[in-house]
From TrEMBL:
Any Gene Ontology biological process: lipid biosynthetic process
Residues passing through the membrane, by range: 44-63, 84-104, 116-134, 146-166
Recorded family membership: Belongs to the CDP-alcohol phosphatidyltransferase class-I family.
Protein's recorded name: Uncharacterized protein
Location in or out of the cell: Membrane
Gene Ontology CC terms, in alphabetical order: membrane
Keyword Transmembrane attributed: yes
Classification via InterPro entries: CHOPT
Source species taxonomy: Eukaryota, Fungi, Fungi incertae sedis, Zoopagomycota, Entomophthoromycotina
């Protein structure tokens, strides 16, 4: 399929520009005719079509064989591994953002932050009972909820950091985020 698309790109008039033209232009239809054909470029149309075809192939394959996507999928979704990985990703992403910001602004190195408190408490949960003959900091049945709280805490801190940095940069440069600030017209 990919080879066919490359050959068509070489043979068709306009080369790669062809894929950006609308289906209506290629078929030579007047704007009032065939309103179900939109003005989307051909590449968008082909991508949407391939998503539908490939998705139906995957669904048909699962129904034919009776096999699920992964034998581990129920365990991944219902246990604490996925939220823990997202928590670690948010925490380390936050720390990387702080390190980059400190480097760019020539500020001192940002030492560990309060975002790591849940990680430290969670890592102390395992060895403390063994070494000091204590009960656990929290029972096993609350471990999943603890990780979800740590994830929410991490996301909140990371979101606050991102919004603060974006607002500070936009205020400093007198720009808007994700839009163009047009100068005010004098009347």
């Amino acid at each position: 399929m990919l080879v066919i698309l490359f050959v068509l790109t070489g043979l068709l008039e306009g080369g790669p520009v062809f894929w950006g033209s609308s289906l209506r232009e290629v078929l030579g239809l007047a704007p009032g005719r065939c309103t179900w054909i939109s003005d989307y470029p051909i590449n968008v149309f082909l991508n949407a079509l391939s998503i539908l075809v490939l998705g139906s192939n995957v669904v048909n394959g699962f129904h034919r064989t009776g096999v699920q996507l992964s034998p581990y999928l129920p365990r991944i979704v219902t246990h604490h591994l996925t939220p823990f990985m997202i928590y670690c990703g948010c925490s380390f992403g936050y720390m990387a953002g702080r390190i980059i910001l400190a480097h760019v602004t020539k500020a001192p190195f940002p030492f560990p932050h309060r975002v790591y408190i849940p990680l430290i408490l969670g890592s102390l949960k395992a060895p403390l009972p063994a070494y000091f003959n204590w009960n656990s900091l929290f029972p096993m049945e609350y471990e999943y909820h603890y990780i979800l709280l740590a994830l929410a805490y991490s996301i909140a801190i990371y979101a606050h950091f991102a919004i603060s940095v974006i607002c500070e940069v936009c205020d400093y440069f007198d720009i808007w985020c994700l839009s163009i600030k047009h100068p005010k017209k004098q009347l």
